[in-house]
Specification:
The protein is of the alpha/beta class. The chain contains twelve helices and 14 strands. Strands 9, 10, 11, 12, 13 and 14 form a six-stranded antiparallel beta sheet that branches. About 1% of the residues have low confidence.
Length: 375
């Protein structure tokens, strides 16, 4: 599939699929497989066009088959009024057709395909991209809204009050739904809130940290027979109900299911447990040194007997919260995040963790400190 995912329009790339996922996409093979594909592509750049064999173009529209399959797998308890923002991305008007088949009243914003993204970049994780949908949900009196990313593997939700549910809230809503169907293991990313983990434990579920990448989440869901997997960046896996693929349309229908079963979905979102979290810091750090710095951080924490999780970077466990530093998968960045059970705990954790991060060479700037409100 030709896709730049949620990146700006001047980016592009190729996503590879195979009948057996392990052929291309498994976490164990992904790195070497992609490097081999890179080497082959570089060879093709030097090839004379005449020696490249002719290809074949096949036109195939699976939309109706997809709609029929989804409708056979899932129902919504009552008709909802929904506004969709597909951001001129690949989802187009397909989500509307699915929701209408399930009995909902639907309006789609920016449903025409346009790779220049004239209205906003289709990345539901960025607050600025949600503004148009938030406004339209309020204007139309809709029950909720959904915003999809460019290639249709992530979805954000807007409640009837025009407010976006954050990644931890959405993860918890769907995890609770999955655990209610069958209790078991829930796989989640390194940035998941302690409130999420504590809630799952209260429900009797087991939680497992995973490398923060949707391929890794899906691999662990399959490997450990989990009942659900997800990331706070709106990627989800529903092994009890669906294929192991992060289909944003299916995820939005699962969220609509929950909303239809609640007297007031906005009130339900407000009732979810919350701790105090910092804005995530994207600390600029060159690709050729960022992994070494994180390795130094892990060594420092081991040497000084800190309680931490090293699945992906280092998540340091403090008495009333945690701090995380990990390398971005897609950019020359080290991502840092902090959470405390109270504002006072958060401030203490930020101060302690930033001092450690600086000690091992994470180039946290004065601007980064100001973002956290630190001197």
């Amino acid at each position: 599939m030709i896709s730049g995912s949620h990146n700006p329009s001047h980016h592009n790339g190729l996503t590879y699929h195979a009948r057996k996922a392990a052929d291309v996409a498994s976490e164990e093979l992904m790195g070497e497989s992609l490097q081999e594909l890179k080497r082959l592509a570089q060879k093709l750049e030097m090839a004379v066009p005449s020696i490249i064999p002719d290809g074949k173009i096949t036109k195939f529209d699976p939309s109706q088959e997809y709609i029929d399959y989804i409708a056979s797998r899932i129902k919504i308890g009552r008709p909802l009024k929904i506004v969709l923002d597909t951001g001129n991305g690949a989802c187009g008007y397909l989500p509307q057709k699915v929701f209408e088949r399930l009995g909902c009243r639907v309006e789609t914003m920016y449903g025409d395909f346009d790779g220049t993204f004239p209205h906003h970049l289709p990345d539901p994780y960025v607050e600025a991209n949600r503004k148009d949908l938030e406004k339209r949900v309020l204007e139309s009196g809709a029950d909720m809204g959904f915003i999809y990313d460019t290639d249709g593997d992530r979805v954000g939700i807007i409640d009837k009050r025009g407010r976006a549910a954050n990644g931890d809230d959405t993860l918890l809503v769907l995890a609770r739904q999955a655990v209610a169907q069958k209790n078991g293991l829930v796989v989640h990313c390194m940035r998941a809130s302690k409130a999420f983990i504590d809630d799952m434990k209260q429900l009797g579920a087991t939680t497992m940290f995973s490398v923060s990448h949707h391929n890794a989440i899906r691999d662990n869901v399959k490997k450990f027979n989990a009942v659900f997997g997800g990331e706070i960046t709106f990627h989800y896996a529903f092994p009890q109900d669906y294929y192991l693929v992060d289909d944003a349309i299916f995820a939005s229908i699962k969220l609509a299911q929950v909303a239809a079963d609640k007297p007031d979905f906005a009130v339900y979102i407000d009732s979810l447990p919350h701790y105090c979290a910092s804005p995530e810091l994207n600390v600029a750090c060159a690709d050729d040194i960022k992994f070494g710095i994180i390795a130094d951080l892990q060594n420092y924490l081991r040497k000084n007997n800190y309680d931490f999780i090293d699945v992906d970077g280092a998540r340091i466990n403090f008495k009333n919260g945690w701090a995380l530093a990990r390398c971005s998968n897609t950019a020359p960045i080290i991502k840092c995040k902090f959470e405390g059970e109270t504002p006072e705990a958060l401030r203490e954790i930020e101060e302690k963790a930033v001092a450690i991060f600086k000690e091992v060479g994470i180039p946290i700037s004065e601007t980064d400190c100001k973002t956290l409100g630190l001197k």
